[in-house]
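Postdoc handover notes: sequence design on the structure in folder B. Input tokens:
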């Protein structure tokens, strides 16, 4: 072993470590002063608490930096984690696994691979071509957008660890059980013919090369540029909508249509309303927060969120290139049933 190499970090690592240390300190300082920043913002605008516009603007200036700080930090970390779980390695891990074990592993891997519902579809095809069973592949397709690290961190930051942990457990359960059910139905014949043609004679890809820590840090940085650069308009739009709800929607009105004592149809209606919408966890969670502040039931609102990010209409359009209508309908029906069950559990427990 070369003792000089062991004692001295690789070239470029020390600047990264110094920069990351400074970034963490600044991140913590900024996160601890969010309320002060929002108070200062409404004060400079001549607004105050207690009136609709002041409350809406305060919500916006509090949640915008909060969500962006959480998102930037966690996306950087997960960009590093993803260097250990490249698509090729993920396919290799899942191929050949038994039904059940494979579903659990696929759903768990979905947490550390933060793809939106549409970007997960190309991996769906890759998994099938690598020999991953159809039901196991669906467990990943459901988990990746719905139970990703962005959703969990934002839920933790806004509602606490109990809500985040319950969402994690129930979301994984939906992904695992839905994949198991689809696998048991043996619907491989309902893949489009061109996909079935790809499956023959394809072997799992390799696991890729080993990266240095500098390369992993660079991957985290690039991940922030790609993900945050892509989703920030959704974040601002979601927070703006949430701010309007927070400031102007009467509490009695929201509680009457989405509260715990709302009509029985409010929960399935929330799921149906969410399907045509397309955004990600970062864009929809500020809306969730505002709805809950106005008296909406947590389970109903989270069911709405799950349908937005796990059953989006654009995802169905893309899946139609891969799956025949009967398999798409089966997938949507099973996942929707699981989401409804999650909503009922949340409304009962919390």
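Designed sequence:
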């Amino acid at each position: 072993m070369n003792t000089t190499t062991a004692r001295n970090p690789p070239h470029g690592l020390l600047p990264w470590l110094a920069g990351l240390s400074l970034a963490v300190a600044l991140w913590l300082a900024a996160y601890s002063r969010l309320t002060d920043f929002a108070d200062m913002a409404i004060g400079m605008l001549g607004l105050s608490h207690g009136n609709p516009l002041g409350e809406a603007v305060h919500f916006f200036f509090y949640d915008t930096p909060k969500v962006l700080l959480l998102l930037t930090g966690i996306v950087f970390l997960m960009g590093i984690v993803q260097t250990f779980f490249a698509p090729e390695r993920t396919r290799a891990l899942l191929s050949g696994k038994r039904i059940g074990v494979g579903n659990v592993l696929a759903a768990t891997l979905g947490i550390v691979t933060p793809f939106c519902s549409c970007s997960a579809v190309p991996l769906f095809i890759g998994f099938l071509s690598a020999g991953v069973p159809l039901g196991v592949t669906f467990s990943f397709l459901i988990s990746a957008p719905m139970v990703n690290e962005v959703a969990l961190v934002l839920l933790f930051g806004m509602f606490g660890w109990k809500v985040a942990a319950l969402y994690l457990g129930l979301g994984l359960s939906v992904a695992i059980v839905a994949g198991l059910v689809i696998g048991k139905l043996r619907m491989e014949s309902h893949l489009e013919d061109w996909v079935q043609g790809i499956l023959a004679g394809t072997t799992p890809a390799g696991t890729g090369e080993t990266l240095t820590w500098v390369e992993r840090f660079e991957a985290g940085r690039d991940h922030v540029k790609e993900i945050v650069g892509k989703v920030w308009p959704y974040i601002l739009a979601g927070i703006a909508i949430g701010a309007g709800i927070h400031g102007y929607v009467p509490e009695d009105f929201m509680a009457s249509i989405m509260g715990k004592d709302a009509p029985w149809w409010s929960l399935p209606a929330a799921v149906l309303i969410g399907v045509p919408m397309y955004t990600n966890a970062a864009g929809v969670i500020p809306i969730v927060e505002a709805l809950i502040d106005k008296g909406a039931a947590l389970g109903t609102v989270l069911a709405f969120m799950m349908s937005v990010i796990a059953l989006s209409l654009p995802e169905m359009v893309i899946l139609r290139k891969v799956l025949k209508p009967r398999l798409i309908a089966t997938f949507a029906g099973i996942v929707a049933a699981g989401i409804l069950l999650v909503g009922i559990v949340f409304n009962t427990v919390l």
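Context for whoever picks this up: Residues 213-248 form the longest helix (36 residues). Don't rerun without checking with the PI first.
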